Batch of 2 targets.
Target 1
Amino acid sequence: MRHWGQRVLNFVFPSTCDGCEAALTHEDLPFFCRPCWEGIRPITGSTCSRCGIPGLHSRSESDASELTCCHTCYDSPPRYDKATALFRYEGVLAQAVQRMKYKSQTSLISPLANLLCENLQGIDHMDIVLPVPLHVTRLRKREFNQSLALAKRVAQTLHIPLSMDNLARTRKTPPQTTLEWKDRQRNVRDSFSVRRPHDFLEKKLLLVDDVLTTGATVNECARVLRAAGAESIQVLALARTIAD
Ligand SMILES: [Zn+2]
Ligand SMILES: [Zn+2]
């Protein structure tokens, strides 16, 4: 029988990789082996110039140059200027984000923030970084806001100020994950507010979230940020859910 201390340690820090079940060594990351971590796939290829969704296909060679945004954005333009998500929300990355968010594994914040901050090329000339806020009751339950943790690191990396609480979540809503896609926009409507609009007046804002799904939450944030007088709003997310 193993020493009880080892068993406690294995419970807190599992000794096998969540992704492939290989034994972990001190050179690996928390919960994941290095090959699994390095296999996290970035989103590549052509993406919508507004919402960033990949796989933008033109219907013919001739309209390829004109097609820069997807049909959804063309029909109903988002309130933000541009959204960028770096990775597909799947496999090891999805496991890591879920561990961080729902099991409060804060040791994964740093490796996840590194993934984000190593890929900030093309995001420049921003004035303020801010996270998608959590409602205070959900924050109490989860103990940390994963978007704020990521936004802090982005602000440090880009050397621009972080606004932690000017955008606030003032209405508690059911989690978006419990809802059908079509109900998500309605669910988040009027659930955010800007406490000091003057701070965002004519500023270029970089709104950070962990995972984009329909984009309904960041779109609603962008609506109130624009109403507060923001000059432009870019969204940066670690990952995006992509329907196959
Ligand atoms: Zn592995
Ligand atoms: Zn789009």
Note: The longest strand covers residues 204-212.
Target 2
Amino acid sequence: MGTLEQAAARFADRELVLVVDDRDQAVFLACPADGIDVQRLERLHALGGGMVVLGLPESAARRLALPAPWRQTHGARHTVGGHGPRKLALTAPIDAAAGIDGGWSLRDRALTMRVAADPDSRSSDLTIPGHVYPALVDERPRSAAAAAIELARLSGRAPAVALCAVVDRQGRVASLREARLDDRLGRLQVAPVAELQSGSIARQAAELSIGCTLPTRDGMFRAVGYAAADADPATVVLIHGDPAARTMPLVHVHVACLFGDAFGSLLCDCRRQLDGAATAIVRDGAGVIVYAKPRQPTAAACVCDEPIDGALVAGLLQAAGVRELRLLDGGRQAQLQEDLRRCGLVVAR
Ligand SMILES: [Zn+2]
């Protein structure tokens, strides 16, 4: 059983797992909110040391008619989870509308979380203000909260999680290394965030992407566009044939190069690589070209050495049915190869 399957099995059994934020390395404890009870909430508090919040995807926030995160209505962003820009967007605290006695106790807060997590609950099942803080989780950016919600989906539970940052008594956010030194935390499963992120992108790309048939000089491709966030440039995926049915299909990951790709600049090799990849893939019968745009606009003539977002590429390849691959020009992209493997893809050496 792989790490992802193990973490999903633990989550399905309502066990606590550790989730590490890819960006600021903050460690969170997570438990599926639809299965939380007094004992689990108590463990989250005791082991995490931070405030326990209820992570909900935006679809759940709409279903429950929760107000927009306070950062939008009050200017300042209310956050938990420590330093850096990667914080949770909290909204007004909630209580279950029925079955609670004041809302303060662990029993009451666990019940409120279960009610909010229930896919059949509506806004009338909650009251505001209450004693449980929901954090609205944008599932597109890479965060520990988004990974935990993906783990909940994957383990067959409702997409809602009880989250607690692992902090010391001074409020300093622990690293994974520090968390593992604690006997009780060290025994918990660590969720494989990279795999959860690429899985989340694959699921969303299947739902959100826009595609068309694209005849080219080399042959027919299916073009699919996907943007990880509203402000991000779309990544275009060109699929030839049926890569899912092909053993080790060819994949070319290309960083958009205006001068090279569009004008045939001889200052770099980009156009030749792109043309060569399309020809090789069509000759091979099936394969994928991922055409990624650099995150930041740049004045540089060629940006083909820019780092590539491995989880995004992996997710889009998975959405195209690719589980194993041969990377064209892979020697140049050692880091990408490593990232794709971390996301669960098999990359030929
Ligand atoms: Zn170039």
Note: Confidence is low (pLDDT under 50) at residues 72-85.
